[in-house]
Amino acid sequence: MNPLMQHDQQLLARIGLAHIKARERARQRRQLRVALRFMAPALLLVGGLLLLPVLYNIWLSFTQWQLFEGRDDFAGWQNYIQLSDNPYFDEALGNTALWVVASVLFPLSLGLGMALLFRRMPGQEWFKSIIFLPRILAPTAAGVMWYYVYAPQGMLNQMLGVFTNMPVETGWLFEEQLVTPAIILAFVWQSCGLVMVLLLLGLAALPRDPLEAARMDGAGPWPLFRHITLPLLAPTLLMVVILSVLAGFTVFDLLWVMGANYPQQRTLSLAVFMYFEAFQKNSWAFAAATAVVIGGVVLAVTWLQTLLQARADRMVR
Amino acid sequence: MQNLSPQELAWIATARPPTPSPLRWGKTLCGLALALLWLLPFSYVLLAIFKSSAEYAASAPLSLPASAAPLLDNIRMAWEQAGMAQAMLNSTLYAGIGAALAVLLAAMAAYPLARMRFPLRNLWFLLLFAGTVFPFQMYLIPLFFGFQWAELLDTHLGMCLLYTAICIPFPVLVLRNYMQNLSLEIDQAARLDGASELILFWRIILPNLRGPMSAVFLLQFTWIWNDMLFSSVLGNSPETRSIMNALLVFQGSYAQSGPNIMLTAAVLASLPTLLLFVLLRRQFMQGLRVS
After folding, report:
1. In a domain, A73, yes or no
2. Which InterPro entries match (chain B) (predicted)?
3. Fewest CB atoms within 10 A around its CB: which of A131, B148, B207, B261?
4. Has residue A284 been placed in a domain?
5. Is residue A106 part of a domain?
């Protein structure tokens, strides 16, 4: 083969390759057009009603907008500085922190205990359904129920009266020290079911070989649980923890209903504080800044979850 | 044997010898105590809705009602004073249209994301998926003024649009995963036969997704039914209120004539989703599994 011919062939090959590449690009463009047609309604709705508002909310948080004034006046970090000086905000932040801790600790420990307890019990379907039932209620409806459970003449005081043999008339939802723990109890009642069901799904999906092997080696129930079941369950546990953190961090409906008559309602949580500032005091920019703070924490937790989840999955495999 | 699920078969295969009976009795007692504790608030509510207002005020919360007759009166008063007829209608509209439309549009969006190759595919997916990441607090103020500007505030159309939008991202994630697991060979065979993408999607992909689609539909329906926040900000007129918002407004109003009426209203508002759960428990649990 002479060199000239070889050159020709290389040229031909290159032209062929370019041709294929161009065709592939045209095909991809065609595919993109078809794909966009399929995705258009979803993109429009999500973009217009969810993502655009988020951007607008961030912009608002840097303005001075209140009722009737300051809509386009740039304020820099002023709203955020005001936030850190606001005593109500500090208290709301503290209560939200309490909510996060409690909404992980109690549902997780109770849910895990119940999952292990009900796992092999006859009639477990009944038990599971009963514990899960409160979860089906709207938080608003559950809040109304518990509002009257906690009423001065309500169920709880009556039962305490029977046990202590004295008339009890505590206003559980009106006293500073009691209101948050009382609402947390209602929250735990509602959320244990979901945690339990998710953990049961996780337990059912565990590989059986390691457990069997350890049992053959004569491991007792506690070491078996501590060293085999718990590590294998880590990805599910992580998911449940993150879910609980986010639920506790953004809790609103229960607080808005049950704390309706609490004088310092806006301090009950960050979400309540934000709603109060926006829709009762019309401090739009200030409330928008609060929303950005809430969003920032939620994004950080979500980001942490993706990091940890990858690690937990790798650990199990 | 045929009625046993794989899970049950596995359980039978690995069943351990029965635990010693005192321990088992202890566990059963423990379970019973927990179940009773969980049912206690329900029992209080179920007793209260059978009492007249005078009877509720005079009797202890956990005492038995004198007769079942006051229930009808309570229902009538709750229904009328809370404006429940309109609110139930509104919530049925929002939850039905919102969830159905969201699942359909999500399936449409998931189709190319799962089964076609085009530039920046992951970016498009992330854009849709971002709708699940932000807390609702970030939407409220812009939506309130956006709806005011577009004259969608306190309209059924506005509420339906919002609920549809908010319910799209999660089903996209779920349905995309399911579509990725369907074999690609059906597509290729259908494309060789000259089927367009739309026909492929409608005739072949959608019928294969009935299970997961009904599962996510149920989850989204329940979520919209139970939502109070968006209705209280964007649709707070008596004509457009959702059922849970109507319940909240009723509790704050002076018209309500006492806890027994209020609790009856709460039970009425929860009844539809409770019934759905009791009837379709399997689909609910499948919905949890897919998520």
Report:
1. no
2. MetI-like (IPR000515), MetI-like_sf (IPR035906)
3. B207
4. yes
5. yes
Alpha-carbon dihedral of residues A121, A123, A126, A127, nearest 10 degrees?
A: -20
- What's the structural domain count of chain A? 2
Buried b (16+ CB within 10 A) or exposed e, A289-315: bbbbbbbebbeeebeebeebeeebeee
**Cβ contact B242:B236 at 8 Å:** no
Regarding whether A88 and A42 lie in a shared domain, the answer is no
Note the pLDDT of residue B14. Answer: 55
Q: Could you tell me the CA-to-CA distances from A86 to A38, A61, A180, A314 in Å, in that order?
A: 48, 16, 20, 44
Min Cα–Cα distance to chain A from B131, Å: 6
Decide if A49 and B229 are in contact by the 8 Å CB cutoff.
Answer: no
Quote the tokens at residue B221.
């329906």
Tens-digit pLDDT profile for residues B144-166: 999 999 999 999 999 999 999 99
A44 in a domain, yes or no?
Answer: yes
The tokens of A44 are what? 């429009």
Domains in chain B, start-ordered, CATH in brackets?
Answer: 81-290 (1.10.3720.10)
**Separation between Cα atoms, residue A237 and residue A72, nearest integer Å:** 46
B256 to chain A, minimum CA–CA distance in Å? 13
- Give the count of Cβ contacts less than 8 A between chain A and B: 248
Determine the structural domain holding residue A245 and report its residue range: 78-138+176-316
Integer Cα distance of B50 and B71 in angstroms: 5
The pair phi, psi for residue A74, each rounded to 5°, is -70, 140
Longest Cα–Cα distance in chain B: 78
Q: How far is CA A74 from CA A60, A65, A79, A101, in A?
A: 9, 9, 11, 37
CA distances from B47 to A101, A107, A147 (A): 34, 28, 16
The 10s digit of each residue's pLDDT in B230-253 is: 999 999 999 999 999 999 999 988
CB atoms inside a 10 Å sphere around CB A231: 13
